[in-house]
Amino acid sequence: MTRRKKGRLILLLSIIILVFTGCSSKSKDEEGALPKEVKIGIIRVPNDKQVAISQKYFDEFFKDKGIKTKFMFFDSGVAANKALSSNSIDFAEMGYTNGVVALATDIPAELIWIHEVLGTNEALVTPKDSSITDIKQLKGKKIATPFSSTSHFSLLQALKLAGIEKEVTLLDMETNDIVAAWERGDLDAAYTWEPTLSTLKETGNVLIDSETLANKGFMTVNIDLVNAEFSKKYPELVQEYVKALNKGVEYYNENPDGAAKGAATELGIETNDALTQMQGTTWLMMNEQVSPDYLGTEATPGKFHQVFKDTAEFLAEQKSISNVPSDEDINHFINTTYIEKAMEK
């Protein structure tokens, strides 16, 4: 080989190495690139997420990485599921019944957190000027609730226990519509959550609440879902997200008055009202989330998996979903990996 040919060969090899090195670097950059913004769906409930927002815990885990957080209110899990389906949000907060709907309708998401176990913050209410003092007296009456919600599930269980589940007229209404219909005198009863519940209680009486039903074996919870595409690309950000929520629970446990004040400011409600709502629910730290009584672990699923399955069967009976997810699908949908990884750090 002549010196000239040898020089050309070296130059060619150098170009090839540079091209492939460049491609490799580009791939690593794309893989390691973080989103500029994380879109987080929220509901108007003073819980661990509102505390985390008010104490700027999400900023601790995202802002330092150059990631903005955008919080978006949703009036119901139905609307949040639509946003997940259209890839408009990365995280969504909702009642777990809408989590069942998400899985049954193939919305690409994972259940990653229980915000609270519902108690006195959801209830069945009748007008004070009515003569109804017992659930059995609702026979033949009109009762409103948002369908496919935790309130819907609890209402049907209460009616079933009273033996009148087929002898009432159920009306599917959003919470704002329930208040309007209540004020017009169009309803005999309504099962709903805060802050709508407090509005109805000003002129109404509680017949039964979700705490009483939980004691009878019908636990209901609010949950958080993550967009599956997001969690696949950014699993470490999901771990940071649950750590922010856990800090919200921790702050509430140590300083309930401060937590209520912060959440109340975020929601524009009175601090006492926020504290009352918070005390009507049960919040879980990371170690409690993955305990056998709730989510369990990837290796050993907890009791909530059976609650989820039972609810799916119930919603299928009510024609709210067309198929019941398998145990394998439920185990895949409830992903505790992020909490377990976060606890290792």
Distance between the termini: 59 Å
Could you tell me the number of beta strands?
10
The sequence of SSEs as H and E is HEHHEHEHEEEHEHEHEHEHHHHHHHH
Largest sheet, spatial ordering of strands: 7-6-8-5-9
**Count of separate DSSP helical elements:** 17
Structural class: alpha/beta
Please tell me what the overall shape is.
globular
Mean pLDDT: 90
Strand content: 15-25%
Contiguous uncertain segments of 5+ residues: 15-31
Largest sheet: 5 strands, mixed
Q: What radius of gyration results from the CA coordinates?
A: 24 Å
Helix content: 40-55%
How would you explain this protein's 3D organization?
This is Taurine-binding periplasmic protein. It holds the Pfam family NMT1. The chain is of the alpha/beta class. The chain is built from 17 helices and 10 strands. The strands form 3 sheets. A 5-stranded mixed beta sheet has the order 7-6-8-5-9, sandwiched between helices. Helix 2 crosses helix 11, helix 2 (48-54) packs across helix 12 (256-267) and helix 11 crosses helix 17 (337-344).
